[in-house]
Amino acid sequence: AQTVTQSQPEMSVQEAETVTLSCTYDTSENNYYLFWYKQPPSRQMILVIRQEAYKQQNATENRFSVNFQKAAKSFSLKISDSQLGDTAMYFCAFMKPDNNAGNMLTFGGGTRLMVKP
Amino acid sequence: DSGVTQTPKHLITATGQRVTLRCSPRSGDLSVYWYQQSLDQGLQFLIQYYNGEERAKGNILERFSAQQFPDLHSELNLSSLELGDSALYFCASSVSSRYEQFFGPGTRLTVL
Lengths: 117, 112
Fold this sequence. Notes:
Chain A is an all-beta fold.
C-alpha cells in the first residue's frame, strides 16, 4: 500500500513571499500521478496541480510549481508571491492509475498554511 | 465551482439512524468516488463506481453502502450511525481517460 507523508503540520509566510510545502511518498510503482489539493476554510477541495511520474519536467500552474524528485520519492509544492487567498490546508495525494482496480487517491495528513499580511 | 454537486450540505441525526447522501458528477464524468474526512482519520477513500459498477473499495464499513444509477448520480447510504461517523463526506468525479478528480462541496454529517 502507498503512503503519503507531509511532515509540516503548519506553516506561515508573509504576503508576497515564497513558501515550499513538503511531501514524501512510498510506493513500489513506476507509473503514478501526484497531486496537490487546497482546502480553504470553506472546506471545498480544490485541485492545485498534478504531476505524472513519467514526466521529468516539473509541473507549473501560474504561481504554483512542484519539485518532483522521483528517485527520492519527494513532491514539494512551491507557492510564489503568496496571497492572502492562499491561506488554506494543503493536501498532497498519490494515485496509481488502474482501470481494473480503481483510481483512488491516497492523501497525506495535510499542511496548514497561513499567509500573513 | 467544480461542477460536482452534493446534497444535503448539512445533516444532523441521531445514533442508530440511517441517512442517504447524494452526489451528481460533472457532465461527462463516468467515475464517482466517495471520501470521508474526519479529524482523527484524515481524508480516506471509501468507494469508487465507474459507469454504474463498483470499481474499488477502500476502508468502507459494512454499515455503509453506495450505488451509482444509470444517470450516473451516486448515493452513499450510512446506517446504524455512530458518533464516530460524524465527518465531512466528499464525492468526487473524473473522466476515465484523465485522472484529475474534482470534488463536490461535501456533506457535513453530525451524529448526536
